[in-house]
């Protein structure tokens, strides 16, 4: 969707700012960028928050805006399918409400639903997509920014429906309609046209169409380059121009974070696998297996079937017979979710036949010596895929072979297969109650990774008391059931389960904001802890203000603390504390470290933030950036740490100032006055910021920033000080928000803002 359709966003931001919703206004304009640039952690937090606030404020268009971009971030680059269909349907219902339907972006809800259906099962939902898109396209003018996205989805649906000839014709007519409306087609429309041409065998025309689209604007600009590269490589591979296709194909490290490109990229790799420039390795097989699991979680039914079949063919090319057979089983199992399976059954049969006809690689030695050979193998160059095949004949009988075989299966992405083998050995035909703790741990891990929770609970019921609760605590922790983790972990600790149980309890307690218990459970075995566990204990003890435990942890690490009791308040140098910003991003705030895991923020923050200068913050002492090797760089290096929580707010209030920059002498005097009062002040403008001269309109160097004052300072005192400190400047400074707050000289400040173009 063309972002221009949201031209009203700027006005909405201004209205929200004037109403005091500064944080919401700051976040608003960034949502499209978060969706397109892949800043999903921000998007997943901010979009629902904005939608909720919009609902509370009675702003339905704004609510639609937030919900739409959140959905785009899910069904676009992340390619979520069935898991997003319900939300797409709800968005369309919302868009059809009387107070929303006139929003210029409302038609985009239909496009979003069509894309969610396509992600789930493109061919299976093809007719539904056409039925839903057709009437909306008929009502939308070609000049409407929503039009290119709608027709792109229509072309894609025609191709998925097996009507590629119609798709080609439809795309051509859509481009003509856009041209007649003096509008350009989008790159996405050109790329879909090329896919349709390829589907009807017009390969040269497909390449021409894609090349013609190269200069078209993209609805999703950041994705254009890699998506174009994958589509170009696919067409070139079909044309037999292998070297050019290899050059055009983006590397795995480029597409690895873009699920939307995975299936087509894998298909191209399969076509080019015979080239010496394409490396078909076990690492590729492991990545494709991870991608299959991703689409299983996201409801990408068609994608996971296609990837399983492609991965199976690539495995055959590597002589990975065991893997090809498992992938054939998966593809057959997954095909049951498809609304239109097509030729999947035939392709599964062909893959199994290829596996039967493929000679497995020769083993390095006799079966009785396989474990020894495995242990002697080079850990960097050994091929775990081959070792799975070589260990298979002795796995399930020999315990040492089973350990290596099943854990390697889990490493390669087949934990369920490994769990089956281990289960038969330890549970069905063995004594799980008397099994080695490592074997129980290995099997537990496999069952967790395979998401076989009921089976794990069944196994736990056969274990001794301590091991039973430890296994259940590990399961609950993996599923982020924190209260249950604590309960089971406490039982495990009482039964003597050891340090792992304490770590589980500690981590879960921290998630439950019970930092006192999280620190205590580690402090009880302080002598047995390594540095990582000690630091974790220190952070939680700090958050709980358990200063005795903090001091014990500091002593264990070798960090000197001057005071002997009470809160730790020392000056330990400058650090950068990384805190969340209202737009879902991050802010780096210069701070003074006051303890092992505490810092006091030193810079004033804009109004509407959840923190300000003077706040005492708990931070994670793990460095976010490495210390530079260069001694000169080390001198200026201020270490960054992630904030954990606000321990004690300072109660400071920030006030904004803006205007023409004074002379260097005046500015020095101004900053000294602020420092004498102990009022943190920070300039947020840079050397490029200018204001307009009130008479000549010539640019003047400008300055804007914030000053923060402690809770015992009134707004009137701030106004009086600013007035005194700046009265002799050649150009006045404005602090309009403060003036409005106390209703003093509001008109003067409004005049300054207007005259200087602030």
UniProtKB/TrEMBL annotation:
InterPro entries: TPR-like_helical_dom_sf. This is Tetratricopeptide repeat protein. It comes from Nonomuraea typhae.
